[in-house]
Amino acid sequence: MSHKNDFNVWSKWDPLQKVLIGSCVGPEYFEHVANIEIREKLQKLVIETQEDLEHIANTCKQLGAQVERTSANHPSFELYLHPDQKAQSMGWLLYPRDHLAVLGNQVIASKPTIFTENFYDTVIDKTFVNTHTAWYDLQVKNRIEFVDPPCWTLVGKDLFIDIDSYKHVDYINSKVWQNTIQKWAKKWLPDVRIHWVEIGGHNDGCFHTLKPGALMSLDDIMTYENTFPGWDVLYLPDQSWHAVHGWTKMKEKNRGKYWIPGEQNNDEFINFINTWLDDWVGYVEETVFDVNCLVINESTVLVNNYNKQVFDFLKKHKMEAIICPIRHRYFFDGGIHCVSLDLYREGECQSYIDYK
């Protein structure tokens, strides 16, 4: 079990020593689905997702990292999909990055129940809840109950927080909220300066720092001359969904939430997902997975698939890409960075950005 002193992440490229990889429900989850065709398609989907997650975990082990896994054996998680109930969200199980953030030696969560209900018992001891911790100070004492961890990106002494993602949270007064965060950070991350940015989505799907001086980004995310002056930026285009055969037809039926190749005419299957698995999918139309990667160290990075622009950029910066496919990322709307959470990296707090 781990306590706060066992966490250490100051950048995305320091050598990865310990990582948490998400999990997926097994095929037995759909045993009670009456329609055999639908049941078998969904079972195939989760089996292949389990295989891909296992491959990522094994790759991290081969590269020298200790690997922990999330577990579906939690009292609050249903073992089967009930015939008359929507499936509960699998987010915390599949995407630990969406629910936890390691900032230096501190850990925060998307909401207090992540700790109080001990969802991540493989990496955090129950006593962690009752000790003097950064998350308790922020999320209980200061009543910042909603935090969106993927919208917090630490780059050494610089912490980038997307304020645009919080506009839909009615009870947050942005200035009061920002002042609270500033005071909290001064106490728990005293050497870190905060930058408020406006992205409007999860940072790890919009920009990714690869090593000192190099990052990948979507177009028009932020003005890097101000936030990362002097850095080499690779701008990636969108997914070009208009070129994907059958996408327009499926988009009309699922509001752009997910994509399953070859199923655009399978209305019964689509309706089942829309009705019973709505909390499993995201909004894939806005996602570019090539940005969503896991850096192992300054010379190695795990990616979803081959992209010539990305591979050429990595080669330019003397980085090797290892392909770890997530075959159903267009269904679950999450990439390698989402399904992983770095817990410990060799390294310390230092400045990587020169603000003149």
Q: Can you describe this structure?
A:
By secondary structure, the chain is α/β, with parallel strands linked by helices. It has a single domain (4-239, 287-345), classed as L-arginine/glycine Amidinotransferase, Chain A (5-stranded Propeller), CATH 3.75.10. It has ten helices and 14 strands. It has a three-stranded mixed sheet with strand order 2-1-14, with helices on one face. Strands 5-6-7 form a three-stranded mixed sheet, with no helix packed on it. The chain has a three-stranded mixed sheet with strand order 8-9-10, with helices on one face. The chain starts with 15 loop residues before the first strand and ends in an 11-residue tail after the last strand. The mean pLDDT is 89.
Structural topology:
Blueprint (H helix, E strand, L loop, with lengths): L15 E6 L14 H27 L3 E4 L21 H4 L5 E4 L2 E4 L3 H4 L17 H8 L10 E4 L2 E5 L11 H15 L4 E5 L9 E5 L2 E5 L5 H4 L4 E5 L10 H8 L12 H10 L17 E4 L2 E4 L4 H9 L3 E4 L5 H4 L7 E6 L11
Parallel strand pairs: 1-2, 6-7, 9-10, 12-13
Antiparallel strand pairs: 1-14, 3-4, 5-6, 8-9, 11-12
Please sum up the structure shown:
By secondary structure, this protein is of the alpha/beta class. The chain has helices at residues 36-62, 91-94, 113-116, 134-141, 174-188, 224-227, 247-254, 267-276, 308-316, 329-332; strands at residues 16-21, 66-69, 100-103, 106-109, 152-155, 158-162, 193-197, 207-211, 214-218, 232-236, 294-297, 300-303, 320-323, 340-345.
